[in-house]
Amino acid sequence: MKNVSLATPIEEGDPAADPKAFRRSLGQFATGVTVIATRHEGRPVGVTANSFSSLSLDPPLVLWSIARTSRSFAAFSAASHFSVSILGEDQIDVSQKLSSSREDKFAEVDWYPGIGGSPVMAGAIATLECSTFAVHEGGDHIILVGRVLQHRRYPGKALLYAQGQYGVVDEHPAFRAQAAADPGTAPPGRTLRDLPLTTLLYLAHHNSSAAFERHRREENISLTQSRILSALTRRSPLSRQSIVRQVYMTPQTVDDALGELLQRGCLECDGDDRFSLSEAGQMLARSIRMRLQEYEREQFAGISAERLDTTRDVLARFIEGLAEQAATDDAA
Ligand SMILES: Cc1cc2nc3c(=O)[nH]c(=O)nc-3n(C[C@H](O)[C@H](O)[C@H](O)COP(=O)(O)O)c2cc1C
């Protein structure tokens, strides 16, 4: 066997001993996001699901799994038909609504009845209308295999889900940077400075976030936990729901991170279920902030305070403009 030097795992062990850690390892696998829906006793029933997978071309089969604990379990285990709507990048709200435990998940989303009455989501980038082909045991889930009777594909980019976060499909930054820097692929004399500003922002964000990950690891803190600390430093106390809104992570990921921070003694929770930082939480937040300041000092050494101020101004104006635009779009 080749002599390999293995990196130290962040966590490891028996899945039964720590199911959350097991789920985090599984979360390293990136997926798309679907809404799977059926009609049960005359009413639409559906869940957000990323366990969806294609299975067979001939016959045309797909599969997914539903938790036995889901309130929609009985409806799907008895369903003759179900629909799969593959969500686009602008459908995070649909994913959030359909993964909630609200009574009427379908009230505020646009859908139409497909084959067998199964609700199909408007705005999806692909839809599959299925009859139930087989149902298999799968531990605390059941696996539903559907035979695709009708498929539709629309333009648009997929909504992704990986490592507890939503994402979008984008060219790998290594290719973009290469295209800019590589004399073979870029026009002669072209450098990073010639790229559009938005591409530069993306590359800066992506690479700095990856570089800062080392510091989070040294503090033994995840990206979600660090975003929660920073949200609670800006304003507190905050309800779980406002935290979910501010950190751009799914409710489940936020719940896990809140649980871990509580266990670590970093959070306090008042009688109204609102969270704020404990003394230990404030210390951890301060220590992350100091690491960030140190990181910025290193990265921007040699750039004058004036130029950094201008950069701050430009970025702040850009972000404010985007926020105003989003508010106008929401109101429209
Ligand atoms: C991105 C994402 C993917 C999910 N994937 C699944 C899945 O594959 N199977 C499942 O049973 N639940 C999955 N869930 C959770 C369900 O959507 C959620 O438990 C369900 O909608 C709760 O509602 P119910 O109890 O009314 O059925 C997922 C949630 C999210 C946010």
TrEMBL record:
Entries under PANTHER family matching the protein: FLAVIN REDUCTASE, FLAVIN-DEPENDENT MONOOXYGENASE, REDUCTASE SUBUNIT HSAB
Domain Flavin reductase like: 26-168
SUPFAM superfamilies, per database record: FMN-binding split barrel (SSF50475), Winged helix' DNA-binding domain (SSF46785)
Protein name (record): Flavin reductase
The family this protein is said to belong to: Belongs to the non-flavoprotein flavin reductase family.
The UniProt record lists the keyword Cytoplasm: no
Keywords carried by this UniProt record: Oxidoreductase
Signal peptide range in chain numbering: none
Pfam families: Flavin_Reduct
